[in-house]
Every structure is written in C-alpha cells, then in structure tokens.
Amino acid sequence: MASSHTRDTDLWFNDGNLVIQVAPRLFRVHRGVLAISSNFFSDMLAFPESETQEMYEGYFLPPPARTTFPVIEGVLRLAHKYDVPVLRRCALEHLSLVFPTDLSKFTQELYIETNLYVATVAHEVGATWLLPAVYHATLQFDATELDASHLWCGRRRRFTYEDLLACFSGCGALRTKVPFFIFTATNLGCGRQDCLIARLRSFTSRLTAQSARLPCRAAYRAWLNDTWRCFPSFFKLPSWDTLLYLERRDLQDRSEDPVTGHIGNEGMSEE
C-alpha cells in the first residue's frame, strides 16, 4: 500500500484484523464488529479474500473519548454509506455534545466552517435534530459570512439555499421575540435620542440592585426557554416532538452493542 497513506491515530487498534482506507487515512478495526453491526460488511466479508489484494500492517470510541471533527465526519459518512449503526451512533453522540437539543447544554462557540460542515452532514445522514443548534450558532455571523464558501479540512463548505432561507427566516422571526423595542421605540416618551439614552441608563442602573437583579434574571430565563421552544418553527424545522424522537432513535442505549472499550474523559477539538 502506498506510503502516502497514514494511520488514523484515534481509530487504529493493534488487535484489529481489518484495515479500511478512506482517502489518505487508514483505519484498523475488527472484522467481527463490522459483520455483526452492518449487513453490508457482513455480506462483503463473506467473500473469500483475493490473493492479489494489497496488504497493510480504527473501532470508533463513543464520548467522552477524545476525537476531532474530521474523524467524526469520516466515520459518520462511512457508517451511513455502509449501514453500520454502531459507528453512526458513536459519531452522532460526539456531535450531540457540541450541538445539543437542550439549550442549557450549549458550552462553546464554533467557527462558521464547523457549522457549515455539521449542517451538510446532518442533511446527508438524516440527523435533522442537530440543525436547531447549528442554526442557533449561525446567529453570531453576518449574512455575507453565511452566504460565502469556506475552506475547512481540505474541502469547500457552504450552506445550501434551503439552509440560508431557514437562517434568514429564523433570524427575522427571532427579532420579534427580542424586546429591544422597549429601549428604542420612539413612540414611548418623547422619542428624542437623549430620552432613549436616559431610558437605557435608568434600566441598567436599577439592575445593580440585588432586589431587581434576581427577578430580571428569572424573567430572562423564562423568556429564553420560551424562545427555544419556538425555535424549530422559526427555522422551518419539524416540531420538537419530532426532533427529539429522531435524536432518541439515533442515540439509543448502546448497551446492546457488541462492542466495549475503555473511554477517556476528554473532549473534542476542531483540529
């Protein structure tokens, strides 16, 4: 096998007995695992090996084992193409940590290229439940960034026309839920700029008092949760009932999987 190919450090197991090549990467996994988990590989591995095939001296660990987005992308595409539910579930579990359906579990802001990639792969593999978090993350970028193509992991990524429509529609709908008009409406009070500034100062100065801070925080949390409940309808997505059902289906308990392994306590990087 050509020396230009490299072992994947996360998915190369010394006791594996099958090497799979995906582009320049090599994965050393277990034949039995693939045969049990995928009808495609079960049928393929039943064929006798060719005497002339190339020989070369990964199984994918679920979270919280450390991995990277490029590895997840490769594994998820492979699992979807060849019908390997175990690998599909593990890859989606990793993505669910960064793109959750629970608003309280959002932990980090990501580069726009990462959001473009996850939107693309979510459509490809039918993981629509990832899209609310993807669209939520896009709110920090302006329209020109959303409509541009971006180079990420050697490939050009961009939103589809449908994704762009969903983002712009959702952004417009969200503006109706954000009560900025309280501070900027010109039909309240005199409407002059100095009155608007005074209104803002009055509001922020009162927030320094503990008696006002806690009720405001509780009201904001209630508003945030209500907005998140409406989020799928804003972005032309299925209802939360449907999305959560799809998530449960994709992330069902893996205790029945014929695979076990030691799991580290690390996160995921964008490398």
UniProtKB/TrEMBL annotation:
Coiled-coil portions: none
Origin: domain of life: Eukaryota
BTB domain: residues covered: 14-88
CDD domains, per database record: BTB_POZ_ZBTB_KLHL-like
Protein's name in the database: BTB domain-containing protein
Organism (species): Schizophyllum amplum
